[in-house]
Amino acid sequence: MASYTTQIKEEITKIETLRPESLAEVCAYIKYSTVIYPDNITLYIENASVARRMYNLLKRLYKIDISLTIRTLKRFTTKTMYILVIRHSIEEIRQDVERTKEQIMDYSDDEKASYLKGIFLVSGSINDPKKSKYHLELLVDHADLADLANELLKSLHFSSKVLKREKGYMVYIKSSEEISDFIKLLGAVNALFYYEDIRIYRDHKNMVNRLNNCEQANVEKSMKTCTEQIQNIQYLKEHDLLDLFDEKSQLVMEYRRKYPETTMSELAEIISLETDIKISKSGINHHFRKIKELIEKSKKED
Questions:
Q1: How confident is the model over 72-100, as pLDDT tens digits?
Q2: Helix or strand or coil: residue 237?
Q3: Per-residue pLDDT tens for 219-244?
Q4: Eight-state DSSP code of residue 130
Q5: C-alpha span between 243 and 35 (Å, rounded)
Q6: Nearest-angstrom CA–CA distance, 251 and 6
Q7: Is the CB of residue 201 less than 8 Å from the CB of residue 22?
Q8: How many CB atoms lie within 10 A of CB 66?
Q9: pLDDT, position 302
């Protein structure tokens, strides 16, 4: 089964584009994948859809013949290599490919998107959201190429970063929302729907986990509070201090002993229902704060 990145690349190679966008895509692909020699430009492409895309765009843009060779390479695995050799219009192609950074940054947003598409077809990858963390990267050989890709992304409002690696550079995006926007920018609609379905599921699952964790933390906090209140009541009893409190405080203590595992909200509701004495959670808390203060004072005196 093809990887998620391969699926994206195969989808975007089927998108029809106008001449300016097609030219930007081809120029980026050549700039980021090969060296232009005086007598030829040779592209080595492993993906059949990408090879077909470059072949058709180059023929349409420059009206030239292109030599296509298909080789089967066998090392650890068997893979097919598509070799495109261009021997015509070299100088015209070179001038288009070697436009300055300033000229490229003056492109329209659609041309910038197509330029990034060309870079992505060369060396881009996006993790399958179902299998791992959200991550998009463009691997390039030289610092100036990494800087150009990064500047293009930032000009389109992506918060990309550049990382120096042992060999070359990595331009990357970690934000799941921005990766979704990048897939949309490429025009890979089916890949985008898949990505969003998984992202919504994962975000929902994470939210449920966070809520469960909060609920568990609240239960543990409530149990700790109940235990402390019971212990304080026991201390008052052992030290003959119960009579120091008014009837309402003694009523609260009586009901806490009677219902040792209820929350303060539940305890307030029980007291209000069983005694017709209206009391709130904050009222319960107020009584136990008074109890705690007296116990602390008593301990200091002892």
A1: 887 777 889 999 999 999 999 999 999 99
A2: helix
A3: 778 888 888 888 888 888 888 888 88
A4: T
A5: 94
A6: 71
A7: no
A8: 17
A9: 64
* Rounded Cα distance, 96 and 114, in Å: 14
Residue identified by tokens 């229902």 is 273
CA distances for 233 relative to 59, 78, 149, 205, 224, angstroms? 89, 77, 68, 42, 14
Please identify which residue in the block is written with the tokens 């304080």: 232
Strand (E) positions, the chain? Answer: 41-45, 66-74, 78-86, 124-126, 136-140, 161-164, 169-173
Confidence of residue 1 (pLDDT cuts 50, 70, 90): low
62 pLDDT more than 70: yes
Q: Is 276 helix (H, G, I), strand (E, B) or coil?
A: coil
CA distance 235 to 229: 10
Contacts of 89 (CB under 8 A, 6+ apart): 62, 63, 64
Residue 7: count of CB within 10 angstroms of its CB: 17
- Provide the mean pLDDT of the chain: 90
Torsion of CA 217, 218, 224, 225, to 10 degrees: 160
Spatial distance between the Cα atoms of 42 and 51, rounded to a whole number of angstroms: 12
DSSP state of 13: T
The tens digit of pLDDT for each residue in 167-217 reads 899 999 999 999 999 999 999 999 999 999 888 888 777 777 777 777 777
Q: Which residues does 259 contact at the CB level (< 8 Å), separation at least 6?
A: 266, 267, 270
